[in-house]
Amino acid sequence: MPRSEVEADNTAVGVDRVTAAFDAFADEARLPSIVIGAVQVVLDELLSNTVKAGYPDGGPGRIEAAFEVVDGYLQITLVDDGIAFDPLERADPDTEAALEDRPIGGLGIYLVKQLMDRVDYERVGRHNRLRLVKSLEEPV
Amino acid sequence: MEIREDRREQGLVVAVGGRIDSNTAGELEKALLAHAAEPRLVVDLGAVEYVSSAGLRVFLMLVKKSKAGGGKLALCALAPGVKQVFDLAGFTPLFTIEPDVAAALARIA
After folding, report:
1. Which of B24, B27, B45, B53 to probe the A interface (max A CBs under 10 A)?
2. What is the set of domains in chain A, with CATH numbers?
3. What ipTM was reported for this prediction?
4. What's this model's pTM, rounded to 2 decimal places?
């Protein structure tokens, strides 16, 4: 079963490194293009959040990502050593509000939850750990 | 991300390609909001790989400004993954969306 791991800094360059690693993995694992697009969005939402908000005191940090296909499911693990942050605690935005009432922003985590079949958060010691699962068999 | 502008008789067509994410959304914001006052504006997303929430934010600002200024705006050629993100975010009803540039120009004529 294809598997790939990558480690990167808590910087925009680090985020690029993780997304590039996913692109290579997706290619090797022949993931469907709709799944690739969904994961690219998810990685941008989660990693840009981590880089922007995870290290309020500045300083270096470490992001680890693992991608794996097991029994028809894509499993993604994201680990960082930023401040504790459970994205699943955030309230969902109102996606039916009229145009003038739409807040600008706040959609990222909601998209992550909608695009993945399962998202679990855990604080393990000094690390945030997110496990994401996406079925490769069901049509989206 | 690539941005190309094509001034036509029926309106301005801005074609966007590549990834619209937290890295590129700032550039897109500058490029699109500069044209928010266009009376007829089509944004061709045919070559876009994906749009994350940072990009959605730009499209929301664009449609708000365009409406406020009385302009007509249409998006076109959304790939299935891009359409899915617009649907999930509840953005589809906020925009005029057509399959291609010709249909988009006709819609806002």
Report:
1. B53
2. 3-135 (3.30.565.10)
3. 0.92
4. 0.93
